[in-house]
Design a protein that fits this description.
mainly alpha
């Protein structure tokens, strides 16, 4: 228990200590050192900690306990998260050097690390909620880190579509993110309260055997899923993740690619055994599967048409989160049908968290180095960087091939296993979408790599990134090859499949379009490209229609209730009544002594009558 708590809270302790120093170097290195200590402790737990739950009481009245769970999901997830945090922290030391807000950055970096580890290890729903809200707060703080809103920190170009701005500043993107995620969290919290009232326990381990949960039906499960679906940017909530790219690239690598956005799908995986026997849960798993596949396809098309380095990677992130969510939902459905081992199916889904996180963290840091050295965030404004940034180019080649699922790299293994769950369902409606996204994925990966490192306008005075920056992403790129080799060695390598052939077909097309003969255009596909490039016009809904409806509703409430009702009562009706009453009373004051004597006599008589009546 003590080692787990140290693993979780050491980064937070370091971030608090960093506030008491004005030295940027001290802030960066103490948080980085704490991240590596946390990673070493997580490694110790992974290899030596016995499985089980450990905890102490926190708020007994609502069943809240500081309770941690060590099992086949939390231990590897903790190992993954801590080492990614450590690698990205080391990268940040140089990447964020000279930034105008080091105190803010390094405090929320450590705060995020602790919050994320709380989510990973928590067995108690209320403790998990504390970490869940912590990562949301850190996400908002770091998306909007560059609060001066300089144009080079925006997402999008300065243009409007149907009158709606299609650019997002860091301040606006941070607000967008926290509003979207908090919408899901309100349902998430409601579901937790329902579970506790129905079962009397807030423990994940306790809920697994709670009879009261089984009769609740599917609605509380859908409410619960709203939290993970918004956190992991599933359609139609994926928009916040795309504009979250206004934050520093190190933040994009850490929070919006490798860890925080994985929290949602991680929670979907670990709660699948709990919800499996709830009445109507098959509908819940259908929803997860369908939304996952829809997200994967929509986000893949967005990645294919984006013109910013980080937007391509953000779209790819949402697509892979969709694959994981679909794999988790399919695991629940297959378990419902019987004859399938649920834990193995969930392990397949979980492994893609690992495969995607390792390659995507490397890619974000590598392209962050490109932005850092070349001074642009747009594809095509700088090219042929392979001649100037050889280490970065080699690392990005490995990570890209892993991301798009080319064997024998890690990404191929984990994506194939995750999609095996979905294909196993045998759903004719889902298969075309899956094959299409598998075909398109290598194309956007090779487009990003080819137009940056192989072709395009050659950059001037661009050099390799500093060692503190390239060592972390080069190490992660090497890990994709090493772990892929490990799976091959232990006999867990997926066999040849139609999914692999779809991927290889896309790879051949990508090589032809962006490696061999870049610059090929098709006017026939231009309208489809425009729709995907505009992100299916969803920003018009989120940044145009919804704000207009909200503002109109607010004005209506103001006019009807504030002005008409409350102002009417307090400033018109009540003053009018008092004015009428005071006017009537003033007429009684005539100034005539005889009248006043009459009032006195009448008053005395009324008093006597009342006394007689008593």
């Amino acid at each position: 228990m003590e080692v787990v708590l140290l693993t979780i809270f050491i980064p937070l302790l370091a971030s608090v200590i960093s506030l008491f120093s004005s030295s940027e170097k001290f802030k960066s290195w103490i948080v980085t050192l704490s991240a590596f200590v946390s990673a070493l402790l997580a490694t110790h737990l992974f290899f030596s900690a016995p499985h089980g739950t450990y905890g102490v009481n926190w708020i007994e009245a609502v069943g809240a306990r500081i309770e941690v769970r060590l099992d086949g999901f939390s231990l590897p997830m903790g190992l993954l998260v801590t080492w990614l945090i450590a690698a990205i922290s080391l990268y940040s030391v140089k990447y964020m050097e000279g930034d105008y807000r080091p105190g803010w950055y390094w405090f929320f970096f450590g705060f995020f690390a602790t919050s994320m580890l709380v989510v990973v290890y928590a067995d108690n729903l209320w403790l998990l909620l504390a970490g869940w809200e912590g990562v949301g707060l850190a996400s908002w703080a770091l998306i909007g880190h560059w609060y001066r809103d300089e144009q080079d920190k925006w997402v999008g170009k300065e243009e409007r579509v149907l009158g709606v701005p299609y650019w997002w500043t860091p301040s606006k993107a941070g607000l967008r993110a926290i509003l979207t995620v908090r919408l899901g969290d309100s349902f998430f919290l409601t579901a937790m309260a329902i579970f506790y009232v129905a079962t009397g326990t807030a423990s994940l381990t306790g809920l697994l055997s709670a009879e009261g949960l089984k009769a609740l039906g599917v609605i509380p499960l859908i409410f619960f899923a709203m939290g993970p679906l918004t956190k992991s940017a599933q359609f139609p909530f994926h928009e916040w993740l795309l504009t979250a790219m206004t934050g520093p690239t190190s933040v994009s690598a850490l929070i919006h690619a490798a860890t925080m956005v994985k929290a949602g799908v991680y929670v979907l995986i670990i709660t699948t055994p709990i919800f499996l026997h709830v009445a109507g849960s098959s509908l819940y798993f259908w929803v997860l599967t369908a939304l996952g596949v829809a997200t994967a396809l929509v986000a893949t098309l967005i990645a294919l048409t984006s013109v910013e380095f980080k937007l391509v990677l953000a779209g790819s992130t949402a697509a892979n989160l969709g694959v994981i969510a679909a794999a988790a939902g399919a695991a629940g459905l297959l378990a419902h049908h019987g004859g399938h081992e649920l834990e193995l199916l969930l392990t397949y889904a979980f492994l893609h968290i690992v495969g995607h996180a390792v390659s995507k963290a490397s890619l974000f840091m590598g392209f962050g180095a490109v932005i850092h050295e070349a001074g642009t965030r747009f594809i095509g404004e700088v090219g042929r960087l392979g001649r100037h940034m050889r280490i970065t180019a080699a690392a990005m080649a490995l990570s890209t091939l892993s991301l798009v699922g080319i064997p024998p790299l890690l990404g191929y293994v984990t994506k194939e296993l995750a999609l095996e769950n979905v294909f196993e369902l045998g759903l004719v409606a889902l298969a075309p979408a899956l094959y299409l996204l598998l075909f398109l994925t290598p194309i956007y990966g090779l487009r990003l790599f080819g137009l940056t490192f192989l072709h395009g306008r050659e950059a001037e005075e661009v050099h390799e990134a500093p060692a503190l920056m390239w060592i972390p992403y080069a190490a992660l790129a090497a890990a994709t090859a090493a772990l892929g080799g490990y799976f091959a060695a232990v006999g867990k390598f997926p066999p040849l499949s139609a999914a692999l052939f779809a991927t290889l077909a896309g790879f051949v097309v990508g090589v032809a379009l962006y490696v061999v003969a870049p610059g090929v255009r098709s006017e026939a596909l231009r309208p489809l490209w425009e729709v995907a490039y505009r992100r299916f016009y969803l920003p018009i809904l989120y940044d145009g229609v919804f704000p207009y409806v909200y503002t109109a509703a607010a004005k209506a409430v103001y006019v009807v209730f504030d002005k008409a009702l409350f102002d009417g009562i307090y400033h018109v009706v009540l003053p009018g009544l008092f004015k009428a009453a005071s006017g009537g009373l003033r007429r009684l004051a005539t100034g005539n002594i005889s009248t006043y004597v009459l009032y006195a006599v009448v008053g005395i008589l009324l008093t006597l009558v009342l006394l007689a009546a008593l």
